[in-house]
Design brief:
eleven-stranded antiparallel β-sheet; six-stranded antiparallel β-sheet; alpha+beta; single chain
């Protein structure tokens, strides 16, 4: 009898267990049979949706770090998602392509360590043209200063553009002040001036901003903005801003605001390479190659130029999108068409250099770089087709 009871009790025990389990499951369903969704965990920072501004900032940081996130348009599209996943893979974190707060924190930390050379690169003989019509020809270079020729004569300026150049003033700033440029870095230095028998001290406070895109007559560049304010015991407050483009190692925009006065703005129009040591034929041929590229269209391939009279080689690339009149410098010239171009120099003894510029075509057919004293490119003779060959 005991053995029979055991044989019957075992299946009954199993049935009771299954019944209890089904009751537990039924308690997790609604009356319509649908399962109850588990509540979202509270306080999960990763569940936050980034704003357009936050996405745009992340895109700029990704691009600066070498991950192609596309334009910083504030849209989290496929290209940006792919860039995030590549960054996550390199950082050994979950590669979900999402811009969660923990991902932003890691991206910001890596970006903050990205060095940016603060000193512009100059070469003796080159000429830098600005939107106010001024131009500077580089005459000499030392570790601390640059000697340039301007329309007003020769002058010297610090190699670090953040240091103010005044003949009657001294400063306690180191030559490498705020270098390398990194977003969020801050620094101060003092300027000492003497007027008559009075000594005056001003304090210059500077802060480095985030990388961003900026368009000037010479083109569109990724830049680092730096703002400095000067206050002191004499004179008005002076605000200065610079936009420095690491890709070409040039300050492409300068803004000076003196309390109570209109801001003075100077933007880059062109950087012209030094060709004075070249034979005349090489200089003329180089101009012809540039004009040949400018006269092309959107389907044109870059013009490659070299000469037996020059060691350098250049690739001439043109953006055939016409520059609107509102973006042109106030040169006082009536131009038929204005285009931006880049001269990419390659040289076995150098790492390469980009010379950007703006060229305008006049009614006469001449192409010029607009300035107070316009730089006129030599035109090839009529009917010459392969003008870039030497």
């Amino acid at each position: 009898m005991d053995r029979l009871f055991a044989n019957v009790a075992a299946p009954l025990k199993s049935a009771l267990i299954l019944l209890a389990f089904s009751v537990i499951l039924s308690s997790c369903t609604h009356s319509n049979g649908e399962k109850t969704a588990e509540p979202e965990p509270q306080g999960n920072a990763d569940a936050q949706v980034p704003s357009s501004a936050e996405i745009g900032k992340a895109q700029r940081m990704l691009n600066a770090l070498g991950y192609d996130a596309g334009p910083a348009d504030g849209v989290l599209g496929p290209k940006t998602g792919a860039a995030i996943r590549s960054f996550q893979k390199d950082q050994h974190i979950a590669g979900d392509g999402k811009l969660a707060p923990n991902m932003v924190n890691r991206l910001t930390a890596v970006y903050a360590k990205l060095p940016v050379t603060a000193s512009p690169k100059y070469e003796v003989g080159e000429t830098i043209v600005y939107s106010d019509g001024s131009a500077e020809k580089v005459l000499g270079i030392t570790d601390d200063e640059i000697r340039v020729q301007t329309g007003g004569g020769e002058r010297r300026k610090p190699a670090n553009f953040l240091l103010f150049a005044e003949a009657d003033a001294t400063s306690d700033a180191p030559a490498d002040f705020l270098q390398p440029l990194r977003a969020g870095r801050k620094g101060d230095y003092k300027i000492y001036r003497r007027t008559g028998d009075q000594d005056h001290v001003s304090v210059v406070s500077c802060v480095v901003g985030d990388q961003r895109s900026r368009t000037v007559p010479a083109g569109k560049f990724s830049v680092v903005d730096v703002a400095c304010n000067e206050t002191g015991d004499a004179g008005p407050k002076v605000e200065r801003e610079w936009s420095y483009a690491p890709a070409i190692r040039q300050v492409i925009r300068e803004v000076v605001r003196i309390e109570g006065a209109k801001a003075a703005i100077r933007e880059l129009v062109a950087v012209q390479p030094d060709t004075e040591a070249w034979p005349t034929a090489a200089r003329t041929g180089f101009d012809w190659a540039i004009v040949n590229a400018l006269e092309g269209d959107a389907q044109s391939t870059p013009v490659m130029w070299s000469s037996t009279g020059a060691a350098e080689r250049f690739s001439i690339r043109v953006d055939y999108t016409a520059v609107p009149p509102s973006a042109l410098p106030p040169a006082g010239l009536s131009a038929k068409r204005c285009l931006r171009y880049k001269l990419l120099r390659t040289d076995p003894t150098d790492e390469g250099r980009i010379f950007p510029g703006l060229a305008c075509r006049l009614g006469t057919g001449d192409w010029i770089i607009p300035a107070r004293a316009p730089r006129v490119f030599a035109n090839p003779p009529k009917g010459l087709q392969d003008s870039h060959a030497q």
